[in-house]
Amino acid sequence: MAGGQDLNERSLYLLKTLVERYIQDGQPVGSRLLSKDPNLKLSPASIRNVMADLEEMGLIHSPHTSAGRVPTVSGYRLFVDSLLTVRPLASAELDQLQASLHSQTETATDLLGKASKLLSDVTKMAGVVTLPRRDSVSLRHIEFLPMSSTRILVIFVTDTEEVHNKIIHTEKQFSTAELQQAANYLNSVFTGRSLAKIRDLVVKDLEKDRHSVNQGMIDAVNMAQLAFAQQPDDDYVLSGETNLMGFSELSDMERLKQLFDAFSQKHGVIHLLDQCLQADGVQIFIGEESGYSVFERCSLVTAPYSVNDEVVGVLGVIGPTRMAYEKVIPFVDVTAKLLGAALNPK
Amino acid sequence: MAGGQDLNERSLYLLKTLVERYIQDGQPVGSRLLSKDPNLKLSPASIRNVMADLEEMGLIHSPHTSAGRVPTVSGYRLFVDSLLTVRPLASAELDQLQASLHSQTETATDLLGKASKLLSDVTKMAGVVTLPRRDSVSLRHIEFLPMSSTRILVIFVTDTEEVHNKIIHTEKQFSTAELQQAANYLNSVFTGRSLAKIRDLVVKDLEKDRHSVNQGMIDAVNMAQLAFAQQPDDDYVLSGETNLMGFSELSDMERLKQLFDAFSQKHGVIHLLDQCLQADGVQIFIGEESGYSVFERCSLVTAPYSVNDEVVGVLGVIGPTRMAYEKVIPFVDVTAKLLGAALNPK
DNA sequence: GTTAGCACTCCACACTGCCGAGTGCCAACA
DNA sequence: TGTTGGCACTCGGCAGTGTGGAGTGCTAAC
């Protein structure tokens, strides 16, 4: 985006301190206050002139005549993109994070929960972690258990150590031994392959095996098809939503309800987070940029996380637009890396 | 509790209509309004006399001098215990409920979620369902999968068709075959027994087997001990929390935050719900009766649900004290029965 | 025991005046 | 030409005020 170009150093510095100041106290900041900045040796009047320019460019705006100025979304954007001085984590903090995310005792699912909680605890905002994309993870083990005559419980484990289960229905009634055989077959053929790949193979196998002599294999592949049927990735772990209730900018009950509703509906949020899968680092949505009206007064700072060098999910922090980006950004970045590391197969 | 005794029919009827009225409009109800009740042929002045009595007994109370009266907790309690005319569900409604809870395609976990959602959707309040108590359910199948050298993923399925998994650590390193054998042994010995029973047996077996020749069995039992180690039942499925944000009596943000915090902490709520396990039908906590200050302005209507004639969990509805008890009570009752039925092994 | 009447209390709401903060504009200055 | 002080102006927030309505408690009469 242009915008930055037309501005001289001074205006930019002014914008920067204005935004920082506003993030700090949450009050519209006026010319008098800014004139006290030691690096900005200007009278309030001059500052007002600069501010008028900034306002004309849509970077800041006055809630009403006699209030100070507040950054607009574009203002925040410019700030975040070019003005921000991120402060990397102290190594002590980093060690602490690493310690809390690197535990041998836990399943992947627990780990995701922990990461989410960590995000919210540290930032005092809401933390979110999407479950690893099912397509990218690979199969480690599959198992069939008969429940009732034609209902079969499928349990499968991925290389991220997540355990999935679902009930499938079959026309034919299978014995425990037959199911065992089917599982053995699938385990021998598909272990280590990604679920997406398996779906491909299954379709091909069905073509090929149609006239095969081995009915057991056909059955097995049929069951695999049911088990791995495409399912939208529509889940995430959210923590610390309640932290959001403390922010005055979100204190409108109607709005807040809509936001929390969006959290429990999930699909909107997931859609938003999916957009961050491609980004190769921290990605930020400020206010209405997200395109979802419920996030109008929120910002979302995300980073993708990877297992085996492949991006499988996204984590992030949701909070009011007025948040301490300079701390949140490096923190989200690091957390994503640590989570990825913790999830890597040992 | 006494209280009802000292009151004549008329006062009770007056209390009843007052509570009904208040539940309906949420406004303090005054003598004028009550005098219009066709069954209560009294002038406002007389009604005021009766109300003064009721107030003296702590059943109703005036928010301020010139407002009408509002039921107190004791007032609600008397109303719910002796005055309420519950309205049983229409059979059409019942069929509909049955339909939504009786599905073959789902795992138990999905079913609990569905029940919770049902509770919240129908009542427009929050629905909660505790997971079946692990102790009472019995084992259907257990399985060990090696993850890394000494980390083993244990997967076990209960007769409620719930799939549990956890990571255990062992000193010794086991081969896949050894793990398979251990699982086979445990499955043959323990299938169909309750987890509590299994824990008992495991301890005894360890005593007995200490000098056994068969190391494999010892290992198996050891692993079983790790897998079934006592864990507090501390989980439930909550739905429709956001519905609570619409109620004016809960619209204080500070309070609401505390309530939602309690929901995510879980243990307080679980403790409360556990108290309802013994009750042999619908149990109600009104306002501060629960003993938890976060529920000061809430009521909780619960009913235990059973599998195989044994109570394994509790479900209920959380809403403002001012709720339509006459509808909620039978609905919660029926839902508990339907959920129990749906969970019964087929 | 029931009722009408009456004085009283209190909330809700609208209106007022006032203060402080911050602005935009202009004229003077370097 | 850019910077500055001065000044009139605007607006939100707050405290104080007055009014109307709702509902009460009390008392005296039925």
What would the average pLDDT of chain A be, to the nearest integer?
91
Element order, helices and strands of chain A? HHHEEHHHEEEEHHHEHHEEEH
* SS-based class of chain A: alpha+beta
**Approximately how much beta-strand content do the residues of chain A carry?**
15-25%
Major sheet details of chain A? 5 strands, antiparallel
- The number of helical elements of chain A comes to 12
Extract low-pLDDT stretches of chain A: 1-5
The pair of chains with the biggest contact is:
A-B, 34 and 33 residues
Question: What is the β-strand count of chain A?
Answer: 10
The multimeric state of the shown protein is homodimer
Label the overall shape of chain A.
elongated
Rg result of chain A: 26 Å
- Strand arrangement in the largest pleated sheet of chain A: 7-3-10-9-8
- The helical percent of chain A reads 40-55%
Report the end-to-end length of chain A measured between terminal Cα atoms: 43 Å
Protein described:
The structure is a homodimer of 346-residue chains. By secondary structure, the first copy, chain A, is of the alpha+beta class. Chain A contains 12 helices and 10 strands. In chain A, the strands form 3 sheets. Chain A has a 5-stranded antiparallel sheet, sandwiched between helices. In chain A, a hairpin with a 2-residue loop joins strand 4 (139-148) and strand 5 (151-158). In chain A, helix 1 packs across helix 4 and helix 7 (176-190) packs across helix 9 (215-227). In chain A, 40% of the residues are buried. Residues 1-5 of chain A have low confidence and may be disordered. Chain A binds chain B through residues 104-107, 140-141, 143, 145, 147-148, 151, 153, 155, 157, 161, 163, 165-167, 169, 239, 241-242, 245-246, 251, 253, 256-257, 260-261, 264, 345-346, and chain B through 104-107, 140-141, 143, 145, 147-148, 151, 153, 155, 157, 161, 163, 165-167, 169, 239, 241-242, 245-246, 251, 253, 256-257, 260-261, 264, 346. Chain A binds a DNA duplex (30 and 30 nucleotides) through helix 3.
